[in-house]
Amino acid sequence: MSGGLPDLCAGHPPQRMPLQKLLALRYSRSAMVDIHCHILPGIDDGSTSFETSCAMAEMAIEDGVTHIIGTPHAHPAHKFDVEVNCKLRDELQAQFAGRLTFATGCDFHLSFENLQDIRHDSWRYTLNQKSYLLVEFADYSIPPSLDQALHELQLAGLHPIVTHPERNPLIRAQPERLFKWLRQGCYAQVTAQSLLGRWGDSAQQVANIWLDAGAVHFVASDAHNTTSRPLRLKETYEMLAQTRGEDVARALLVENPLAAFEDRPIPWVPELADDVGWEDSAGATPRRKKRFWFF
Question: How many domains are contained in the chain?
């Protein structure tokens, strides 16, 4: 895959905050980074207008978000045009200069066409045109061939992040597939509102189970608007800080997302809980290789 960055995006880098301000934010609770958000207007089923996008950005600022990655769907149902995406990002950045830092990426549908195209132009799809990639699975079918597709993305130097697996009924029904992807080096991102029960009991229950099992690396908004799917993270941060500790909340909503934004190794990769996702068809648990924390 090509790692080169075209002039379009290279010429308009995300605005940098002053170092003193950035350091202060990193060590405060109000410094969240949203790596999955449909804030770019008129692109997909997310924001329908620039005014809505601005309202979503104001909500983010009020919540304590400092960085947002606009991630429209790269899906056959929605035209994905990186030049348009970058233009819209620049317009939002100009509107919120010094208040928010914007970047682009996508919600990458694992279709045959996308997998062919990403071999040549990976920068079009990755978060902030770096190496982390949000990957979205269909709700109706996850063929075994996609296991190899994820592996090939990794061999090309990309870091796949499985988006909202707790909302996918097929992954909920076959969680061993998710754990297989995680053990081969992928990451998982759950939706903030799922942890609060706003995507239903099933999504909330499994998101909490996987969080306790060490299978969640990012929490993001997946916001689409200001009403039914708003850009709200603070409530989830506070719930996680209360139930699992401040360190876990910061890891999921600040440190790991910022590392992905800046293209660094994520600092918090919990060890998967014993016996999770290792059962064979007879229900037996095979011997496992020793696993480590990564820093």
Answer: 1
